[in-house]
Amino acid sequence: MLANMQAQASAMGMTIVPAVLQTPEGLDAAFSTVIAAGPEALHLLADSGNQGLTDRIADFALQQRLPSFSTLTRFAEFGGLIAYGASLSKLLVRAGYFTKRILDGTKPADLPVEQPTRVELWINLKTAKSLKLAVPATLLAVADEVIE
User: Fold this and answer.
1) Are 48 and 27 in contact (CB under 8 A)?
2) How far apart, in whole angstroms, are the C-alpha atoms of residue 82 and residue 77?
3) What topology does CATH give the domain 40-87+117-147?
4) pTM above 0.90, yes or no
5) Do residues 91 and 111 touch, judged by C-beta distance below 8 A?
6) Distance between CA 117 and CA 108 in Å, rounded?
7) Opening angle at CA 123, ends 97 and 88, nearest 5
8) Which residues, at least 6 apart from 16, have a Cβ–Cβ distance to it below 8 Å?
9) What is the arithmetic mean of pLDDT over 57-82?
10) How far is CA 128 from CA 17, 80, 118, 142, in A?
11) Can you give the pLDDT at residue 38?
12) 74 vs 7 pLDDT, higher one
């Protein structure tokens, strides 16, 4: 998958430099990888292993003056510039629904696989101002959440 993303990015004149994070203790090493690459932006891939680190990652991006974006919607609350993804609260409600069904006796293999049917756009204007970036009014108009 990474090779495909890198090929697509290359075709658009971009370079993807992955900073692998295997454990929370490896965050500083991942930061060093990012700094060494000298990127123009930071993309945080949604992963259960980094959800508890979003505040530190967003803070790092701000310190490095990097526009940052993620599919973790709460990332914008912690200082990320833009987040575009499924609502965490709605995902948790669905997880509760499936947990109840399993506890009531439904076999997990008999439950349907669901995909989010709606994504949310969150924009952090404080971060945009800090980075001296203008956010177009048309983008603000369609945002689900604007943090000021």
Assistant:
1) no
2) 9
3) Rossmann fold (3.40.50)
4) no
5) no
6) 21
7) 10
8) 2, 5, 6, 9
9) 93
10) 23, 9, 25, 17
11) 87
12) 74
What does the block give as tokens for 115? 């995909």
Question: Contact 125/147 with Cβ under 8 angstroms?
Answer: yes
pLDDT in tens, 9-66: 566 677 777 888 888 888 888 899 888 988 889 888 888 777 789 999 999 999 999 9
11/121 Cα distance (integer angstroms): 26
- Cβ contacts of residue 62 below 8 Å, gap of 6+? 68, 79, 127, 130, 131
d(CA 73, CA 95): 17
Reported as half-sphere exposure (CB side, CA atoms, 13 A), residue 75 has a value of 30
Please state the domain extents for the chain. 40-87+117-147
Q: By the 8 A CB rule, do 67 and 131 touch?
A: yes
CB atoms within 10 A of CB 54: 22
User: For residue 16, how many other CB atoms are within 10 A of its CB?
Assistant: 15
Based on its alpha-carbon atoms, the radius of gyration of the chain, rounded to whole angstroms, reads 18
Place of tokens 């993620």: 70
